[in-house]
Amino acid sequence: MKIARDTPLAEITLRKYEKPGNLNERELVKKLCLAIGLLQPGDSRDVIVDVLHVLLRHRKRKKFLSCSEIEKKVMQNRKQHRLQMLGIASSNIRRQLKRLKELFIIEKTRNKYRITEFLPLLETYDTKIEKFLLLSIQQRVREYFAKADETF
Asked: Are the C-beta atoms of residues 23 and 31 closer than 8 Å to each other?
């Protein structure tokens, strides 16, 4: 007997918000995380925003960061913005790094992290997310629509 799995091979959530205006750095990163489904609207556990913010700030310097360095900088970032120290456990930071890695926004090399190839985020979106991840998801969904039409 064959057991079907309902675990997706890949997934992405996209949300449309107002145009980015006069947002501070952290608010801009938060809207970006909301727009690509890394953060849920109204979610108080937003440490992923700080993780991405830290990595983005070090992109221009072309600096790789270890997990422990990211943890320290996330804590500093949250203190600077007067936020509660929620979700800053090292296991949670690693989980957030994994989520960013699965979306091709960051990469890990020799146990250190960076924004993918230190590229601009728009370039990463165009080449990795839109043309690779999103296209493959759309093609598979089309296959399900075609099979449903064939079946019914």
From this structure: yes
Residue range 85-98: average pLDDT? 92
Answer for the pair 113, 64: CB distance below 8 angstroms, yes or no. yes
Distance CA 101, CA 104 (A): 5
Bridge partners of residue 107, in order along the sequence: 114
Distance (Å, rounded) from C-alpha 39 to C-alpha 63?
25
Q: No. of H helices and E strands in the chain?
A: 6, 3
What CATH code is carried by the domain that includes residue 91? 1.10.10.10
Tokens matching residue 35: 């727009």
Same domain (yes/no): 138, 112: no
Q: Are residues 124 and 63 in the same domain?
A: no
* pTM assigned to the model: 0.89
How crowded is residue 38: how many other Cβ atoms within 10 Å of its Cβ? 24
Calpha distance 97→107 (Å, rounded)? 9
Q: Residue 103 carries which side chain, given as an amino acid letter?
A: L
Grade residue 43 by pLDDT with cuts at 50, 70 and 90. confident
